[in-house]
Amino acid sequence: MAAAPLARSAPGPDPPSIVTVFVEITPFDLVKCEVDKSSGYMKVDRAQRTSSLPPTIYGFIPQTYAGPKVAAMMPGATPGDLDPLDICVLSERRITRGEVLLHANVVGGLPMLDAGEADDKIVSVLRDDAI
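Structure (tokenized):
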């Protein structure tokens, strides 16, 4: 069976099991970029402040939003962080550039509280990864 094509803005071909990920940073990047909400362009968010690199591919799931419903599930959170859901993608393959889309199989999540805001992290594996 052929893999479904990546839809530019869809949360995925079979959410919440299989989702689309927009990659913002990889384990090989020293600068984190993110989408500027007002322009839609990529912008530099920050240079990594230490010599340690991100342990996984990291990005967000398009057409998701950490708003009041996400905050309601996190004790101590007043709002959500008002961003798309963050996602970490494990893979045996080296993906060395950001600003790409990929499909990932969701395996779990980590509830996170960042300065009083719900900022959950979804954990996934690259779709069709050998591991």
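The helical segments are 68-72. The radius of gyration is 15 Å.
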